[in-house]
Amino acid sequence: MLEDKRIRIITGHYGSGKTEFAVNYAIKLAQANKKTAICDLDVVNPYFRSREKEEFLQQLGIRVIGSSIKGLASDVPAISGEILTPFQDDSFEAVFDVGGDPAGARALGRYHQYFKEDNYDMFFVINANRPETTEVEKTIDYLKSIEFQSRAKVTGIINNTHLLKSTTVEEVLRGQELCMKVSQELNIPIKYISCIEKVAKELPKDLEGEIFPIKMYMREEWMS
Q1: Which of 37, 161, 164, 169 has its CA 20 to 30 A from that of 199?
Q2: What is the pLDDT of residues 63-100, one digit of tens each?
């Protein structure tokens, strides 16, 4: 993880679990004593956004950058000018949580002038249980649409195939097969296999990609 580029962009389909991954990723960076910022660029989906955990993340030393409007109007799609801070301040390890569809990726495209091949990674999160990413061709079309709208290139794939707390090893491995086919077709490596901790412990160790155990920070205990 520490070898990834300083600017990490997390994108994928709505429901892929990209925000959960982004939050877990930022927390692991902070736990490694890195100066970390998480930037919420999701101006499409009103639910399960990283900025909802702002107070919790700040307590961990993570700077949270999201809407420029606080309070009752916080759902207005207005991005704070602070978003430029991690681009301009090289001391930050930055995680960008981007909107979960091509339309949401347009918000990232606004900042394309700050992207250079050597300073960012863009990770595409795949959940093989989502209708738009159940087949190789549909998944590739979706990935390319996000690249076009964001004006950035995907550099790694994340297998995050899940059924929330009901996720099994078999589900993750089924998603891995899809990710491998997409990876081979596009020549983009599988960077991470993301799943809840109890499943991560049971996965085979010879899979392509680093096993990335996560906790479910974005869902309360009562949620399925």
Answers
A1: 37
A2: 998 754 454 444 445 567 788 898 889 999 999 998 76
Please tell me the distance from the alpha carbon of residue 51 to that of residue 54, in angstroms, as a whole number.
5
- Strand locations in the chain (E): 7-12, 36-41, 63-65, 93-98, 120-126, 156-159, 190-196, 210-214
d(CA 154, CA 186): 10
Helices and strands in the chain, H and E counts: 7, 8
Contact between 196 and 211 (Cβ < 8 Å): no
Instruction: Tell me how crowded residue 119 is: count the other CB atoms within 10 A of its CB.
Output: 13
pTM of the model: 0.88
Q: Of 120, 113, 81, 97, nearest to 41 (Cα)? A: 97
Highest mean pLDDT pick, 39-43, 81-85, 195-199, 219-223: 195-199
Q: Give me the DSSP letters along 87-145.
A: HH-TT-EEEEEE-SSHHHHHHHHTTGGG--TTTEEEEEEE-TTSGGGSSHHHHHHHHHH
Q: How many CA atoms lie within 13 Å of 145's alpha carbon, on the beta-carbon side?
A: 16
**pLDDT given at position 112:** 85
Which residue(s) pair with 126 in the sheet?
159
Q: What single DSSP character describes residue 48?
A: S
Q: How many residues does the chain have?
A: 224
Q: How far is CA 192 from the centre of its chain?
A: 11
